[in-house]
Amino acid sequence: MDFMVLSLLVYLLGAVTFIWPKKAELVAHYFGMLCSIAASGLVAFSSLSYLLSSDSVWLIDMAWGQYTLQADGWSGAFLLITGVAGVIISIYAIDYGKGYLGSRIRALGGLWNLFLMSIVLVLIAGDAFTFIIAWEIMALVSFLLVNHESEKKKTVSAAYQYMVMTHIGTAAIMVAFYLVASAAESFSFIDMANNNLSGYMKNVAFLFAFGGFALKSGLMPLHIWLPNAHPAAPSHVSALMSGVMLKVALYGFGRFAFQFIGMDVFWYGLIVMVVGLISAFLGVLYATMEVDMKRILAYSSVENMGIIFSAFGCGMVLYSMKFPMLSVVAFTAALVHAASHSLMKGLLFMSAGCVMHATGSKNIEHMGGLARKMPYTALFTLIGSMALSSMPFTSGLVGEWLTLQSFITFAQQAGSPELRLLVVFAFIMLGLTGATALGCFVRMYGIAFLGRARTSIVEKAHEMPFFMLAGLALEAVLIVFVGVMPDFLVNLMQRVVSGSGIILMGNPLGIMWGGSGYYALYSPALIFIVFAFIGVFMVAAVYRSSTFQAKEVTWNCGTVPTSRQQYSATGFSKPLRRAFDGILNPRRRTTYLRKEHAYFGRKLHYELSIPDLFNDKLYKPLQQMLINSSSSFHRIQEGSVSIYIGYTMVAMIVVLIWGVLL
Amino acid sequence: MEYIVTSIGLSLVQGFVLLLIAPLVAGIINKVKARLQKRQGASIFQEYFDICKWWKKATILTPYTGVIFVLAPVVYFMTSFMAATMVPGFLTGQFSMGDAFIFVYILALGRFFMTLSSMDAATSFGGMGGSREIYISVLVEPAVMLAILINSIRYHSTTLSAMVIDYNEAFFTVSAVLACVAFFLVMLAENSRLPVDNPDTHLELTMIHECMTLEYSGKLLSLIHLGSYLKIVVFLALFGALYVPVEIPLALKVLLGAVLIGIVETLNNKMRLFKVRVYLGAAIVLLLLAIIAE
């Protein structure tokens, strides 16, 4: 029996916590987490053996009647991401989940296992039916997980918004599958690859597939569920949703792009690329404006999915321009960045969970100086923040560098002025995104962990228990490992895209990319060695006991500073808010009591809100339109039975006449 | 393997050479400014004395700071030094650790730690500096990306040593001149010079970089200053090697660039913070035209 199927069974075993006796809740929790660690370990292990051993197309091949399970390299890459994230986040959840003792912890453990199982099932589905069923299980289970803290009103509305949005996405995906499957006259993925979709229907199928998967991966303008759902869910669930579930959407879209629809049409890739770039920049811009730690991370997920999809789109464009060899770098970039984003976003959602655990709040405006209270958490969060700002020696820069290289590769082939303009647009967006991401995470880390405590909630903060720190540490180690020695991951991912035939980019020196007279090299290991070499001397020269002798209160123009005089998170992002106010449309309301002194000591109330652009300009009008149109239907809904019978009769007659005429 | 070791050795030597001349270049800029303002000005070696003076003094810490605060100056200095080892033209040959994007992100690492440290001292000055630094960097970054893009389209590589300007091909072409002017604008913004930031002032309304370093003293302060002098030289060298389409020795280009910075700083006032986006927009438009003209 295959390991992958075994892992599905272990996940199912973990789901027995549902019917565990209530007295032994804690044991149920441990059992559930143990199952998910074991099963995810199996998934990671066997996916690694798929990726390393051979490049045969179908690695699992099983069937029960209509339902088939199959996996190839493309599934293998995502199975690896799922397995690694599953193991690490489950370890974290051993301690984190204890916070839910007495509030449906058995259901949480069971759903956790089912969620992981459904993700694995999506990735190894071999036909459209299995895929859709697994996809639907994934949507329902994640809805229940988001809704876990259903005592809070906000959670419920976020969960239902997620439910509605994700089902719109599922509907679009079903239409896309239906179009392809009916053209191929089979639901099996192998047969669907040989479909004979005509040009027009192909376009429609592509648009539905992209719309559906873009919604699930949170690309703008279909992202509005994401910044609500991720903060509402328990932290380990949001880590898994952001780290893995969003990538599963990339998996599905890749299936369509590589196998079912093809990438011959230029504008397919163009759309994916442009939507990705816009999502990347707007996502990180909104992230920089938020003060809720988890909403920052959620918007940052929109950004990173944007980068991943833009790289993927760049690959599609290169492919359609008849450069299949060059497109390898772009698809590899998408996969590597997906893997590294799964690591870093997993880490940061988990550390957001730690901060909530310690302070009971998600609002960074109330924090400050957490690094003194929880030094290890602070260290790991720093590594995660560095990775998301794509700093050197973290996995973030590896993905970012490959993405930039794929766009440079595109620029090499873009001769005409129109394409040049597109390239310029892409680089402006990537530049803005990169720099704003740095600002966003400097702000988040600096306000929450550095400086002085802004409110008393920080006073009771404490360091985290062992397993939570272990989860953070594992992610941090992986991030730095991939960041310094990226060749292993890059080669694994490249082999998925290109097969083992061509020269691999990763080598002990670093990553090398070239083709048609072009070359580039990134050798983090060498830079790291030089950096460490100088660093040793610098540390020896600077950090002597004689260096730091005196302590003196911070200069504050002659007064003793209070902690309220520190920059706030909102203040920190003010220049950016002003620079991009055309997009952000911040709404300010200032009210003060006129009766008091006009200039000094008056009571002031200031309110700032930054509504989501698409929520205001797209969804609200749409909602209004729906309500208006349904109220016009109201007129024919009189409520009297005889009228409804009349309607039925009229419908019958129309059908009869139609039948006679045709 | 031997080849790599030699190259790394040469890069390190180059880094030290640039480090040695960095305070001198800063001194030259100040001297030019002083002479243009009809002042005698300090000696061009003054920056060496300053660095030595700060190095000898005690470092005073505030009770609110943590590890980041004492770590940041070292990281900042080291990133400037790493950038100095990557600049093409002096000693480095064909093999170079320096990819253009990595060059940008190495410098970004320094900025990451400096802005973090600005928040660690728990005062409004620091946060103000950090916030403005982020604002400027967001506006500069697209221009930097386009500047890299234009040379990588021309020379088919993003390795800095391969992107050195080819005088036969790009001798005063439209695109080369536009890129040269644009990169000069970018350079001023990246190094916190006038008209974006005023390096001479300590007025809270105007300063950006100085805001962040306000709480530093002693060894840490001297490291920060050395790092920022080094950063100017690195950018001048990069400017000369990659973008100035005139065939003169690189050292002369660095010197002339320093004089030019002095002149520009004398002729211009600091612009309003929110006008900077227009200034950098101009740089972006110039680069866009250069790329279309390429």
TrEMBL record, chain B:
Residues spanning the membrane: 6-29, 61-83, 95-114, 134-150, 170-189, 220-244, 250-267, 274-293
GO CC term (a single one): plasma membrane
Domain of life: Bacteria
Keyword Cell membrane: no
InterPro entries: ComplexI_Subunit1 (IPR052561), NADH_UbQ_OxRdtase_su1/FPO (IPR001694)
UniProt topology in membrane: Multi-pass membrane protein
Keywords tagged on the record: Lyase, Membrane, Transmembrane, Transmembrane helix
Localisation: Membrane
GO molecular function: lyase activity
Alphabetical list of PANTHER family matching this protein: FORMATE HYDROGENLYASE SUBUNIT 4, FORMATE HYDROGENLYASE SUBUNIT 4-RELATED
Record protein name field: Formate hydrogenlyase subunit 4
